[in-house]
UniProtKB/TrEMBL annotation:
Ranges of residues in domain Histidine kinase: 245-444
InterPro entries in the record: 2C_sensor_his_kinase (IPR050980), HAMP_dom (IPR003660), HATPase_C_sf (IPR036890), HATPase_dom (IPR003594), His_kinase_dom (IPR005467), HisK_dim/P_dom (IPR003661), HisK_dim/P_sf (IPR036097), Sig_transdc_His_kin-like_C (IPR004358)
Species: Roseicella aerolata
Presence of the UniProt keyword Transport in the record: no
Protein name, UniProt field: histidine kinase
Keyword set, alphabetical order: ATP-binding, Cell membrane, Kinase, Membrane, Nucleotide-binding, Phosphoprotein, Transferase
Domain HAMP: 185-237
One Pfam family matching this protein: HATPase_c
Annotated localization: Cell membrane
Membrane topology category: Multi-pass membrane protein
Amino acid sequence: MAMTAARRRWLPDTLLVRILAPGVFALVVLLLVSLVVHASLLRQAAERGAAEVAAHRVAGVAEAIAAVARPDRSRIAQALSAPDLALSWGDAPDLPSDRARAAPDLAHVGRLAEVTREIRVAPGLSDAEHGALRDVAVSVQLVDGSWVNARVLAVSLIAADDAAFRVAVGTVAAALLICVALASRVAAAPLARLARAVRHLPPDGDAPLPHVGGPQEVRDVTEALDGALRRVRDLLRQRSLALGALSHDLMSPLARLKLRADELPDLVLRQTVQRDLAEMEGMVGDVLAYLRGADGGGEPAVPVSVTDLVQVVVDEFAETGTDVEERRLDEATVLARPVALKRVLRNLVENAVKYGANPWIEVLTDHPGVEVRVGDHGPGVPPEDLARVFEPFFRGDRARAAGGGSGLGLPTAKAIAEAHGGALELVSAPGGGTIAVLKLPPTSAVTPARLPSKPSA
């Protein structure tokens, strides 16, 4: 678990990385093994070449020493020595015990096979600075059992072009790495396109997922996801039809009850029943609006002047005797469903009027997008309730104390805001009160639909 967390901290957990990382690791291991094997083979070739060079020099000497009498052999060996070749004759081989080995493969050199019974060598010590092997020792046993010992002080080597080898290996590694990276990107690209297509699907659209290409597995996922989306859309469409029927079935009896309530002779009872019916009608409307969700009841989206829409809502509240302060109204246009967006604004202002005091509203375009802020100077929302106010049917203590309401106003407003590509949040105002912030994406190069403003009462 800790290793997985560390890996995600250092590397992005993407398909590209998951494909590329094992390939890079295998490539690094392969390169290291290749370099080790290359160095080992170079060492073996150098030792074999040095031993053959030394054996060639000893071959003629051994034949000459074998041709003279034993008492003269030491003198002859010393006479045949050279500055880079030390010769001696004796009854035992003179080799470093830690490096000595038998070398029957050198019997073919010169006439060694005719005058010797055994050949032993001791590979030299590497002298990288001078490109040579030093202290290469060869001992050959003559047919009479005596030994001719030769020590070649330095055998020059044909320098292997390690730099060229490393450049070649690096070039191959880079080419393989580029191929692996390109293959990984090609494999991951269809999934990235599919993710983008799903994220940009309109919430109320019936368009199928675009063809993203890629291997068969990705095409299968695309088809399965497209089928699931069609089933979800069908279910939502059926729910909308059922809600339409439910709306008719519920509203019609309520309308009849309201008419009958108007005929009640008792004034107090009539007002009580009318108030209860109005509350019931509002609750049914809230439930239907929430269940209708983000589709807006099929209302088309058009360019709308947010400033005009805010003015209409403010004027409607003014007609009922409620003043809403207009602080700053920047001219802003968005692509929206006017009725749905107006419902959001009305709900936010109603909450500010009902649960606060001195409501105010403003439209800001200082940042990318449009912000509509609705605030009040009331007691505010308790911090523990701020995270829950958008839960369906949730009502805080103050809302329950005020009476009425279904707990669906803010969830419905949030759903409508998100369906417009925006967001809705509540924040506590400095010094008391609550501010509802409605964020909407901007619409450029459009002509807003001008909404008629109602005159203030």
